[in-house]
Amino acid sequence: MKAALIQKFREQVEYQLFENIVPFWINHTQDTEFGGFYGRIANDLTIEKEASKSLILNTRILWTFSALYQFQQNPEFLRMADRSYDYINKYFFDHELGPGMHGNIKTVKNIIFVLFKK
To answer: Global pTM?
Structure first.
């Protein structure tokens, strides 16, 4: 009985994850204009294009889609992980002054502003 309940719970979690949560992130969070992912989306799904993009958000996206790809070798999961990695490497890693990462950046009219460094 307990094993059946656990299996049913697992199926429900996987359904929500792969039918609702992951498709939402794939379909609604990619910033096709400036790259990476939107820094903020309101509850009504309004995209706040002027919101800063944080290192924490982008590394969480990288971790999530990397883990999902290990669970299911879906090429879309790998593409999302690669997109996040490339954006982190390009905009958050300080290639000029080394070691360290920019913690927050803001894109305004295709110009990147570093808000702070960690």
So the answer is: 0.80
